[in-house]
Amino acid sequence: xxxxxxxxxxxxxxxxxxxxxxxxxxxxxxxxxxxxxxxxxxxxxxxxxxxxxxxxxxxxxxxxxxxxxxxxxxxxxxxxxxxxxxxxxxxxxxxxxxxxxxxxxxxxxxxxxxxxxxxxxxxxxxxxxxxxxxxxxxxxxxxxxxxxxxxxxxxxxxxxxxxxxxxxxxxxxxxx
Length: 176
Hints:
- By secondary structure, the protein is mainly alpha-helical.
- 66% of the residues lie in helices and 0% in strands.
- It is built from seven helices and no strands.
């Protein structure tokens, strides 16, 4: 059994290793990770508990749906719990969750294709992470059309851009 403070410390160290600034780490530690630790203590344990992590996320979901907290703050707890869970299970932090990543995770063959595309570039690791998001979104879109990678055509790219623009009209596209 792993102590919750050790698990959180491991996640925060990994965030530091990802290039997050000290001020950002302090802020997220105070606003998200410290409440996770406190939740465990309030429930009578100093050890990591998947059930307690889930119950806190559920509590935050109810607060979000009740308008007490914003969606971004609620999602930060979901992301933190995902990272803690991966650290406890493997000893490493899985940084693949991004916003609503559960919605944007294509099947295994498209994930492998995404990795191959990213590995073929000369981008930095940070740039590859950012670039992986629209690529995964695209492959989820193709997957919903029940198309294989060999059936993708130019029209599919145009349709994807049109659908993505409808979903996020207020956001500007950032270049890498």
